[in-house]
Specification:
The complex is a heterotrimer of chains A (336), B (388) and C (379). Chain A is an alpha+beta fold and 336 residues long. Chain A has two domains: 252 residues, Alpha-Beta Plaits (2-Layer Sandwich), CATH 3.30.70; 33 residues. Chain A is built from twelve helices and twelve strands. In chain A, strand 5 and strand 6 form a beta hairpin. The relative contact order of chain A is 0.17. In chain B, strand 1 and strand 2 form a beta hairpin. Chain B is built from 16 helices and eleven strands. Chain B is an alpha/beta fold. Chain B has three domains: 60 residues, no CATH class; 153 residues, NADH:ubiquinone oxidoreductase-like, 20kDa subunit (Rossmann fold, 3-Layer(aba) Sandwich); 93 residues, Cytochrome-c3 Hydrogenase, Chain A, domain 2, CATH 4.10.480. Chain C has 379 residues and is mainly α. Chain C contains 13 helices and two strands. Classes of the chains: A alpha+beta (336), B alpha/beta (388), C mainly alpha (379). At the A-C interface, helix 1, helix 2, helix 3, helix 5 and helix 6 of A face strand 1, helix 1, helix 3, helix 5 and helix 6 of C.
């Protein structure tokens, strides 16, 4: 299955464009209006060109969220739990640094014969699918900060959020009898004490930058507007906070900001020197999938009118027809 | 020396008849052999090479060395003076014949220079030229003169008859601090003064004395320079990133950083990357051999100061001290998951068999039923009609 | 006038013993699942959080349980009383299809001990398709047991209760048609959130309609399949005449499904994707070929007349409908981060065990309760 499916994915380009192009008009008509980002929304900017792959954010995340180290089966031979080396997001890893390699992998942030890092965790969608699909409301989006949070005491473990997330973020811990969903919640427990998310706190270069989405947007604009090679003071930790910046030069960015429009927009944004799909960031259209599924559902079930009408109709017919055939259900004793 | 002696197996056998008699300027043969074996080990050579080095170094005709100073602080010589196994004077006076050294020679003025010329004539084609310090090129090189001659002239003159040229220190290797922007004197490294001639660079500010001594002994022993990198630095000393061998590397991997001098992380000995350590872009063996023979951790990062990349032309005196460095290579243990890595368990034999068996049973049972059915015309429609 | 009666046969046969063994094996693995977690037994992973326990046992399993829904629609809503003899076996299969689907949900739920949250109004999440499906399925299981309860009441002679029930049966019947319409269509709506990951060969705004229509077709196919298998297995008189009359309805439903599916593919300009060589595209054609084969059997008089062809048609419809669901939920979507999935042996054994339990209970019920058509059963 793996081999064949892989070939399938290699044709993913055609697949993805078709998926993005096909349903637009009709689905836009059915979808409910898009949600707007909160003015106080907080977010993160991940600049792949600044990332040096030190994984400090991964280690800090594990520590801040009390997650155990992970060693995949393929690595147990040389690494007996010495280093956390999660291969992907999982029920025990909320944040992971992955690498893109091509050819000789010599130059950083080059698509050909280069390499680049990418950080994966929850993007905190403006209109999150996980919140929309959760049957019991265990996933919630904060109205002000926009943080998508998870409540394990409500969750029933159906994993629809895992299935439905367009970015593959929420994960269920399959290795525990009492497993729960794991996803980045922007370290909201630390934020309560006035701290910032652990990954941004430890990032040495400012590749992960925390702050209000509005300010991050302005920062992105400044970086993309400047010519490559211009000296630039990259803020570290939280934007606007009093930390010494990282003095470096503006790199060559690929066009676009990942997360600006994907699935109705997200509060995490990516800048990179390598095309986003190469970094494993899925190609996602502008319409939020949640708006489509909710639109369809509320069209069919608006005020429960359609089901009620159908029920009355069915009941009327059933009553009439049952009366006609009533003796069909007579007990066998009458005959036998 | 018995040609068949193998110090890897029997060190004592190589010592000869009177191993503990001080013959080499206070050094016994045992000490000399131990020193050379140590040097050989530093370079990744076998103990046999150490014995050969000792033989070369103690040969009756000691190789002559001419040592020139340019724009510099004499720190490299100071550093060499602080090597202890053996002491530099033992090496300089007994192992090599330091015929001329701007700082260390006893004579002065014309006398010294005359002696230098005489020695250069006498040993033409045999002596080793060591240069310490940068060479100013601007305005005809007038910013550094000895005996009325510019440094450029002095080097060209000395290099002509030299068997080998070694540039010690960053100044001689690539210009050093005086070449920093705006470089008012037009300072350059030795190799730019004598283009076309091989100059072995031992950069560092100062360089570790053992990197220099090892190179000299290698030259004497094998008659050729050790393996060099693109900037003509010996690979045994400048082959790997400081970041790769740094004792603070685990802190980097774990995200534990000193954020400013004297803070909690700094006192705990955390990684100095965030306060500007250039270890991730600097190729040198400092973390492996340290400085000053006082034990583990005796090098800048070990003492709590970020590496400033003294051996790298692009880094030292060019990048701000506290600017972040560029991490050059990806090395284990940072085993990064690949973006396109395949994951998940494939089809197991058992699962395929289970699916096959179930499929087979279903098809088999269906076929049995079909066989019983015939063409289906045997069923009696009238019976059913009666029921309705 | 026809009535139902228990089939007087021995409960202990080689078949039932094998089924019991399969059920026991499944329960052993389930014990392991509850002690050590889902990952200890199943191969589900971050890229495939839903495996065969969800897709086969619940999504496909409930479609197999649509016999009761399909027959109730035909008999009580469209007033085709002549098919009433097929009603109770259909209800019985629906009863088990749904009850065991619900059971499968419980052991597949990661945090099953909090499943009651679905019923607490303050946790209700009205935007969630899953919430609607969960409530509808739960309600429908109750409705099915009530619909089927006359079998118990007759067996043990609670005539008074049955009279009350008879008076209100029309409400239950109406619910028994409404609820499956709602949640079978919602099983399709559940995929709408996969807008960017499901192949356009399956992703369409018509998913709810395609799911409910195929569920209906599969419901009739189950009734036809079951009637044939039971009559052949227990050497009972054939119901073929009745089935053959009903099958024209099934044929046109299947045609309608095919027209909707391909019309939509053409309208969306997605059909070219069906000519790329890949395993999912191959399965796309297999599932449609199954539907087409079934349609051809059921709309041609010759096909309907042949018992063998009808049986094969019903099997093709069930296989096609199952494959459609499997493809839409597991094979047609692009898992993120290059995960792959194939069920493990324990995982398969649990699903096989659930089917075995279903067949086992069906056999026990028809042998102890008045389910099968009386004249036949009493022979």
């Amino acid at each position: 299955m793996t081999e064949v499916d892989r070939r399938d994915f290699l044709r993913g380009a055609g697949f993805a464009t078709a998926a993005a192009a096909v349903p637009t008009e009709a689905s836009a008509a059915i979808a409910r209006p898009p949600k707007q980002i909160s003015p106080q929304a907080v977010g993160m900017l991940y600049d792949s060109t600044l990332c040096i792959g030190c994984k400090a954010c991964v280690a800090a995340c594990k520590e801040a969220n009390k997650m155990p180290a992970e060693v995949p089966a393929t690595l147990t031979g040389w690494n007996e739990n010495t280093w956390d080396s999660a291969e992907d997001l999982s029920g025990r890893t909320l944040n992971v640094i992955k690498v893109y390699r091509n050819g000789t992998a010599e130059q950083k942030d080059h698509e050909i014969n280069g390499f680049a890092f990418v950080k994966r965790h929850c993007l905190h969608c403006v209109d999150p699918s996980c919140v929309s699909v959760c049957p019991v409301g265990a996933m919630q989006k904060d109205a002000a900060t926009g943080i998508v949070s998870y409540d394990p005491d409500v969750c029933i473990g159906c994993r629809y959020c895992v299935y439905g997330c367009p970015f593959g973020v929420p994960q269920f811990d399959f290795s525990s009898a009492l497993g729960k969903i794991a996803k980045c919640e922007f370290c909201r427990h630390l934020q309560k004490d006035g701290k910032i998310p652990a990954c941004c706190d430890v990032c040495p270069t400012g590749a992960s930058l925390f702050g209000p989405v509005k300010e991050l947007e302005r920062e992105i604009e400044r970086r993309t507007a400047a010519a490559p090679g211009t000296p630039y003071q990259f803020p570290r930790g939280k934007i606007g906070e009093n930390r010494p910046p990282n003095a470096a030069t503006i790199p060559t960015y690929v066009k676009g900001v990942y997360g600006e429009h994907e699935a109705g927009g997200t509060q995490v944004r990516y800048l990179a020197g390598v095309p986003f799909p190469k970094l494993g960031l899925p190609t996602v259209g502008r319409q939020s999938p949640a708006s489509l599924s909710e639109g369809m559902q509320h069209t069919i079930y608006q005020w429960l009118i359609a089901p009620l009408v159908a029920f009355v109709g069915f009941a009327f017919l059933a009553r009439r027809n049952l009366a006609l055939h009533h003796d069909d259900d007579a007990p066998p004793s009458k005959e036998g | 020396m018995d040609a068949t002696c193998n110090p890897d197996i029997d060190f004592e056998a190589c010592l000869g008849p009177n191993p503990d008699e001080p013959v080499y300027g206070g050094l016994t043969r045992r000490q000399m052999l131990q020193f050379c074996a140590g040097i050989a080990a530093t370079m990744g050579l076998s103990a046999t090479a150490g014995v050969r080095m000792a033989e070369a170094a103690t040969a009756p005709a000691r190789p002559p060395v001419i040592w020139l100073h340019g724009q510099e602080c004499t720190g490299c010589t100071e550093s060499l003076l602080r090597s202890y196994h053996p002491t530099l004077e033992a090496i300089l006076l007994d192992v090599i014949s330091l015929d001329y050294h701007d700082t260390l020679c006893i004579g002065a003025g014309k006398q010294a220079l005359d002696y230098k010329h005489a020695m250069m004539e006498k040993n033409k084609g045999k002596y080793v030229l060591v240069t310490e310090g940068g060479t100013p090129m601007k305005d005809g090189g007038i910013y550094c003169k000895v005996g009325g001659k510019t440094q450029v002239e002095l080097i060209r003159e000395a290099a002509e008859g030299a068997a080998a040229v070694i540039a010690i220190g960053s100044c001689a290797s690539w210009g050093g601090i005086q070449s920093a922007d705006p470089n008012p004197t037009g300072a350059v490294g030795t190799h730019e003064v004598i283009p076309g001639k091989l100059v072995i660079n031992i950069p560092g500010c100062p360089p570790s004395p053992y990197n220099f001594l090892s190179t000299v002994l290698y030259l004497l022993t094998f008659g050729r320079p050790p393996e060099l990198d693109q900037q003509n630095r010996p690979k045994f000393a400048y082959g790997r990133l400081i970041h790769e061998n740094c004792e603070r590397r685990p802190h980097f991997d774990a995200g534990r950083f000193a954020l400013e001098f004297g803070d909690e992380g700094h006192r705990q000995g955390f990684c100095l990357y965030k306060i500007g350590c250039k270890g991730p872009e600097t190729y040198a063996n400092c973390p492996s051999i340290g400085f000053g023979d006082v034990g583990f951790g005796s090098w800048p990062v070990g003492t709590g100061h970020p590496c400033f990349g003294c051996v790298e032309k692009e880094t030292a005196f060019r990048k701000p001290l506290h600017a972040l460095s560029t991490v050059k290579t990806l090395t284990p243990p940072t085993a990064f998951p690949q973006v396109d890595a395949e994951k998940g368990k494939g089809v197991s034999v058992g699962a395929a068999a289970a699916v096959g068996v179930v499929g087979g049973l279903v098809v088999g049972a269906g076929a049995m039923l079909l066989k019983q059915m015939g063409d289906g015309k045997k069923s009696a429609p009238d019976e059913t009609k009666e029921r309705v | 006038m026809s009535t139902a009666a228990p089939l007087r046969r021995s409960l202990v046969t080689p078949t039932t013993l094998v089924l019991v063994a399969l059920v026991v094996i499944a329960f052993c693995f389930l014990l392991q699942r509850f002690l050590f977690g889902l990952g200890a037994v199943a191969n589900i992973n971050p890229g495939y959080p839903w495996g065969i326990w969800v897709v086969v046992d619940v999504i496909i399993g409930t479609a197999f349980g649509c016999g009761g829904f399909a027959m109730a629609l035909l008999v009580y809503i469209f007033n085709r009383g002549q098919y009433h003899p097929l009603m109770r076996p259909a209800l019985l299969s629906g009863l088990f299809g749904y009850t065991l689907g619900g059971f499968a949900v419980i052991f597949d739920l990661g945090r099953y001990w909090q499943a009651y949250n679905l019923l607490l109004p303050w946790h209700a999440q009205l935007n969630s398709v899953m919430f609607e499906v969960a409530l509808c399925v739960m309600a429908y299981v109750v409705v099915l047991w009530i619909e089927f309860s006359p079998a118990f009441l007759e067996r043990w002679g609670f005539a008074a209760i049955k009279r009350v029930l008879d008076r209100w049966m029309f409400v239950i019947v109406a619910l028994g048609v409404l609820l499956p319409t709602m949640h079978q269509s919602s099983l399709g709506s559940m995929l709408l959130v996969m807008e960017y990951r499901l192949s356009p060969l399956w992703f369409t705004l018509w998913l709810p309609a395609l799911f409910v229509i195929s569920a209906l077709a599969m419901g009739y196919a189950v009734v036809m399949f079951e009637a044939t298998v039971v009559s052949k297995t227990f050497s009972l008189p054939s119901e073929h005449a009745l089935i053959s009359k009903m099958s024209i309805v099934v044929g046109w439903i299947t045609v309608a499904w095919l027209v909707l599916r391909f019309g939509d593919l053409v309208a969306r300009n997605a059909l070219p994707l069906a000519f790329i060589g890949s395993i999912s595209v191959f399965l796309f054609w297999v599932e449609n070929a199954m539907f087409l084969a079934a349609a051809l059997v059921f709309i041609t008089p010759a096909g309907r007349a042949s018992q063998r062809a009808s049986f094969l048609g019903a099997v093709a419809l069930l296989a096609g409908g199952s494959l459609y669901r499997l493809d839409a939920y597991l094979i047609g979507y692009q898992p993120l981060n290059n995960w792959s999935y194939f069920p493990s042996v324990p995982e398969l054994m649990v699903s096989i065990g659930v089917v075995a339990l279903e067949v086992l209970l069906y056999l026990i019920f028809i042998k102890t309760l008045p389910v099968l058509h009386g004249d036949a059963a009493r022979r």
